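Q: Could you fold this chain for me?
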Amino acid sequence: MSPNALQDSLLRPSILHILRAAGFNATRPAALDTLVDLASRYIVLLASQTASHAFANHNDVVPTVMDVRMALQDVGALRPQIGIMEEQSRNEEDTRGMDAFLKWMTGDESREIRRIAGMVGSEGDVDVEAGSEREDFLTALKKKHSKTGEESRFQGTVLGKGAEVKPVRLEGGHTESIEGWEAQLRDRKQIVKSQSSRKSSSALLSSVGSPLTDA
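A: Sure. Below is the predicted structure, expressed as structure tokens.
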């Protein structure tokens, strides 16, 4: 499976949950694929703009809150709001777009999306551990399909933790690792290259030292 196909497959359940939270109970496959493609392009654009601002502002790809805000403004998520340059010329900060965005994020319009994402509980739920981090639907789904309730089944995949890198031992040779075998090959190539170079030099010198004969 190609990286794009894998990313689209992982994004498809999120789009379905967003559609369900918005009140849709069914959708056509073509419409779903179109929404997944649009969301994927939007996320890539937002991430690339954030990294670009981070590199331009403080020469580092690790973004700050300001970098994310500028990227959100670039992709049109903060409206209405004037640009950064205009804010500097007016010597005032326009927070209308950010206020509207936060209001949408924490308001009733996105409550169902937040519930699906595990950020808020369902009605009637009792939060035994107040302040504890809730599980999103993907984590709950992985636990549901794991008999032991652990994530060892997904270790080493994009859905789980990274697997521990272990050296591969080679049996029956002078070297015990792939790195040593690669180093041995490089040494052999250097030796062969050096020998061929010396042979070429010897042949050239012998041809120069040979007496010339008249035709």
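A (continued): The two ends are 69 Å apart (CA to CA).
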